[in-house]
Amino acid sequence: MAIRALLRHRSGMIGLLLLTILLLLALLAPYIAPYDPLEMHAADRFHPPSRTYLFGTDEFGRDIFSRVLYGARIAFGVGGISVSIAAVIGVIVGLIAGYVGGTFDAVVMRLFDVILAFPAILLAIVILAMLGPGSQNAILAIAIVNIPGFARLTRANVLVERSKEYVEASRAVGAGPARIIFRNIFPNTVSTILVQITIALASAVLLESALSFLGLGTPLPAPSWGSMLSVGRGYLPLAPWYGIFPGLAITTMVMGFYLLGDGLRDALDPRRQKIR
Amino acid sequence: MGKYALRRLIQMIPVLIIVSIVIFAIIHLIPGNPAEIMAGPNATPEQLEALNQQYGLDKPLVQQYIIWLGHVLRGDLGVSFINEFPVGKLIMQRVPATVELALAAAIIGLLFSFPLGIFSALKPGSWIDLFTTLFSALSFAVPSFWLAILLILLFSLHFKWLPPSGRPDITEDPVLHFKSLLMPAFTLGIAMAAKLTRYLRSAMLDVLNQDYIRTAQAKGLSKTAVVVRHALRNALIPVVTIFGLQVGDLLSGAIIVESIFAWPGVGRLTIQSIGWRDYSILQASVMFIVLAFLIVNLLTDLAYGVINPRIRYD
Q1: What distance in Å separates residue B305's CA from the closest CA in chain A?
Q2: Residues in chain B whose Cβ is within 8 Å of chain A
Q3: Which of B15, B25, B145 has the CB atom closest to A117's CB atom?
Q4: B33: closest CA among B48, B50, B54?
Q5: A120/B149 Cβ within 8 A
Q6: pLDDT by residue (tens digit) across B219-264?
Q7: Complex ipTM
């Protein structure tokens, strides 16, 4: 039923469509891209957009269209892995903290308060300054800043569910805490977690490109959208297209996740459906 | 109110202590010893040892932390690794630029969000409402550094109206100073406007459906009086919280925006210090931003009570 509600949600569908197209482009990049993303054409440096080079070329004569296509792989990859890590850790910690309570809950939540005391980008920058720049460390940094969000949300859900009758019934028939947490409570928190995942993916893509823009994320010459913009910024008078297309790609992907999240929230919330 | 403020301040202490440990750790978790960075690659072991002694780096970590915290509490943030300039002074030189940028951005944010939020709520489904929805979705999805690039392309390179970067002295050329402020402030302010507009619109929609609004209309008050005195006043309560959180976001947004526009504030200093490998500056600027962030959040909480006297804190 939720799927049908999502399919009827206009902006949710637009988001799903944008993401499907981007995902296909990313997966099929080796077949679609006219050039290798690292291949240099010395004679065609800063070639404006044309039939040969759809989005123009950069300072080494590399095809920006091919680089943007391959960049989608980095964005999906870094965003997907970091949000998966954050979701798994955050949800498990949130489930346990919410159900068990006590010292574990207090300690873990204070720890998350500390993480939340830092603006997300600043914390990611600090982590990368300590670990050194690079994709793997960027994934780790983005995961860390996203964990508290998942943990707090899950914990809040558990606190509501914990006192419901089905949990008491389960306990009465002798189910242990692990079974109650993962088999009974967890399925009832999945829908809000799904919404949180799409929102986290949107901000993870933004954060990855920001970190790469600042020279702390995916290292050159890999075609990360953020680092392409960072380099392109230096050549704006010469090659304005260099500063346009990678940004357009970031915006499209973030918009996709944002709209999908919007649609999911409405589709999974029965109250909102009645209003529509 | 006073009691509540005091309690909130006390609650902040454990968080502040752990935050200070994290910030202290910045210098000690980075690869390489601070003395090696200060002395450069050709330093002799004797030079390194002298530096280690001078800065107390040979003492146990816990002792170093306590000494460092003592200095920080007395306002001494240490000296730059590279030119031994006092870091506290360096930060203070950069603060005015960041505050100026944040204020200008907040003003732009408010100027955009209030009319958009109010009018879209008054006429749901109209073209202004559609524009508002599109505007807030786009401003969320467009990364600030790309918006900055687009603005530079348009206003600096194409029309040649505004300087692409820098912050000229206001006493020397106030007009150029103001022109330089426009693009960074707009970039930063527009992200804030997007969220504020969304919240203001939904808060206004909620309030406009209340019975007391119908009563106000029925007793013959003008539309402006109903909207401003009855609706907006109540809609503002949730919006103030969002505004406070947004001011916190302005601080982190400033890190990127200042870097792009070469705006000499604390955010740019943070990024520069990583490039310089000057971790004492990084440490101090991170601490400044986090403290400002926490204080703004506290003030937001307190402002809540001033606007809505029904909220009791104890």
Answers
A1: 22
A2: 14-15, 18-19, 22, 25-26, 29-31, 137-138, 140-146, 149-150, 152-153, 157, 248-249, 251-252, 255-256, 259-260, 270-271, 274-275, 279, 282, 286, 289-290, 293-294
A3: B15
A4: B48
A5: no
A6: 878 878 777 777 887 777 777 777 777 877 888 888 999 999 999 9
A7: 0.88
